[in-house]
Amino acid sequence: MSIITPRYFMIGAAFVVFLLLSNIVAGKLVTFGGVVLPAAVVLFPVTYIFGDILTEVYGFKGSRLVIWTGLLANVFMAAVFLLVLALPYPGFWLHQDAYAQVLGITPKVVFASVLGYFCGEFCNSVTLSALKKATKGKHLWFRTISSTVVGEGVDTLIFISIVFAGAVAAHVLYQMILAQYLFKVAYEVLATPLTYAAAGWLKKREKLDVYDYGVVYNPFGLDLKYSDENLMLKNVMLKP
Predict the structure, then answer these.
(1) Which residues pair with 30 in a beta bridge?
(2) Gap between the Cα atoms of 203 and 237, Å rounded
(3) What are the residue ranges spanned by the domains of the chain?
(4) May I ask the CATH class of domain 6-84+99-221?
(5) Which residue(s) pair with 209 in the sheet?
């Protein structure tokens, strides 16, 4: 059985949009209570919220396809930016440096972003899926927060370490990792009511609640079909 529906596509598209916007605005610095953070911290945690909803409703396989879509879109966007910046420009164009400063992405940053995203999102999805089976679908708040603690921790540690290790003092590096990590986790905690509402609404509309019993957590598979042999797929009989 396939879980592809129009709502699945819409959530997947929103996931990719927030991911790409996060990478575009990441170069802008903001301050919250005196703590300096990249502007992406207001957008990137939303991808984890969408990831939680996708895994909760459509299962690990449904989330996996969207994660791969976001990864490929991110790589393609970075390649387009590099190509456009490398193209020759007329002498009267006075904004090349400003354009490059905003959209210029070094290979190291692209690598760090892709690796952190890939590892973090899959850790988030696997953790949520495994906890759903362990708790028999109860305590969504605990599962979403726990998966974020794992996923955002992996993502933040990989990205900050690759980009800034050796460029800043060790204590500054640790502060950057801790500040971003705590902000992202707090973001997820505050968004828990929204996650509850969105997941519940989708389950009612889709009449679907996927439990990944027997599913192998292989990040490189792309199949979306579930069978009775490896999955318990329940129709949610809730009143609209």
Answers:
(1) 37
(2) 9
(3) 6-84+99-221
(4) mainly alpha
(5) 234
215 pairs with which residues across the strands?
none
Q: Which tokens is 79 given?
A: 């390649």
Say how many CA atoms lie within 13 Å of 145 toward its Cβ.
13
- Which DSSP state fits 87? S
**Which residue, chain included where needed, has tokens 């990590």?**
181
Q: Cβ distance 235 to 217 under 8 Å?
A: no
Quote the distance between the C-alpha of residue 82 and its chain's center: 23
| Position with higher pLDDT, 5 vs 229 | 5
Closest CA to 59 of 234, 202, 209: 209
Decide if 214 contacts 229 (C-beta within 8 A): yes
pLDDT digits (tens, 9 = 90+) for 155-169: 999 988 888 887 778
pLDDT digit string, tens, across residues 30-70: 887 777 778 888 898 999 999 999 999 999 999 999 999 99
pTM of this structure: 0.88
Q: pLDDT by residue (tens digit) across 62-95?
A: 999 999 999 999 999 989 988 999 999 999 999 9
Question: C-alpha dihedral over 190, 192, 197, 203, to 10 degrees?
Answer: 160
How large a percentage of the chain has pLDDT more than 70?
Answer: 92
Query: Could you tell me the two tokens for 37?
Result: 């953070």
Candidates 162, 152, 156; CA nearest to 125 is 152
End-to-end, the C-alpha distance of the chain in Å comes to 24
